Amino acid sequence: MAVAGFWLGTRASLITFTVMACWLFRIDAGGRLSGSTRWFLERFTWWDSFHFLRIVDRGYLPLAHGCCDQAFFPGYPLAVRLVMPLTGGNAALAGFVVSVAAGTVAAVVLWHLGRLVSGSPRGGWAAVVLLAVAPYGFFLVTVYSEALFLACAFGAWAAGLTRRWWAAGALAGLATLVRINGLFLAAALLVLYLAQTHGLPLRRRLRPDVAAALALAPLAAAGFFAYLRARTGTWNAWQQTQEIGWDRQLAAPWTGIDNAWHSIRTARTPDLVISRWADLLVTLAGVGLVVVLALLRRWPETVFVLLNVAVLVCSTTLVSAPRYALMWFPAYLLLAEVSLRRRWAWLTPTIVVACLPLLGVVALSFAAHHWTA
User: Fold this and answer.
1) C-alpha to C-alpha distance for 68 and 61, rounded to whole angstroms
2) In a 3-state reduction of DSSP, which class is residue 250?
3) 250 phi and psi, to 5 degrees?
4) Which of 101, 143, 201, 338 is most exposed, with minimal Cβ within 10 Å?
5) Which of these, 44, 4, 10, lies nearest to 364 by C-alpha position?
């Protein structure tokens, strides 16, 4: 309860800061919502939010009838649909509620993960604090799917660490229904299982129940692609929309880095300059995180972050890298564990001081409907 209260307190402060700053500086860029909650909700509903809201409203349509809702997995819109009766049918408000609730669940589970990995409740608190001040953690209170993914992913990892494989597989499957990154989570869980059973005879390692549990994530993805096939008439509608909507295609690693550098040099507005620098720096930090995890021989975590980073660097664009980095939970756990050492006790307070102003910048940028991530 203490963790949930702390998290809700930080979210309430962030929401209050955003709303009061927008009111004080008369920030209202207009929008597409209506009703009495319009002004408030438009501070937290923009860009990809409308893809989710259209899916809630009309489902997935053939590509000829519109793009690019097909690029978004159905887990978050389904959760919004389930909550809508509690919000009087207001989909944007339901999306906001889902994100805040899911973020609270994610924080509680992250505390348990931090305690489990570090062996101390202080490690759990450090991990939660780091997530709370993450600059792009503002997206955990917006009509976006990151909070719901984190709640499922943290739960899956906690279940895997405690060898509850059916729970781990089921939560990884739910995470996959929210974002395709759930497949990377399932791969990391498989490596975690192999690490836990290292040294056992082969016949004891080959467990059909674990295989069936971890197959739930790829089955969830396959089910969504089959559904898109039925709705759109093509098996690769998801990839097509990535290319049409965001020019995101498979490419050599240096292509995305080169394109990111070019986009920085051609940026003409402050919001684009900030976001494009953030894309490049976060991606490079992700590469560094992979190296550190590999040197520490944390192979399950290495696999998870490596696959997430590889999707960025082996693409024609690095757009939204800071928002994707919210899902790299091994970073929170590693930093929390390191911060418990006496000579590194300064680490968490320093990160908090450095990140809080950046969190405010991201919040106001998004609320003003500038490009953020």
Assistant:
1) 9
2) strand
3) -65, 135
4) 201
5) 44
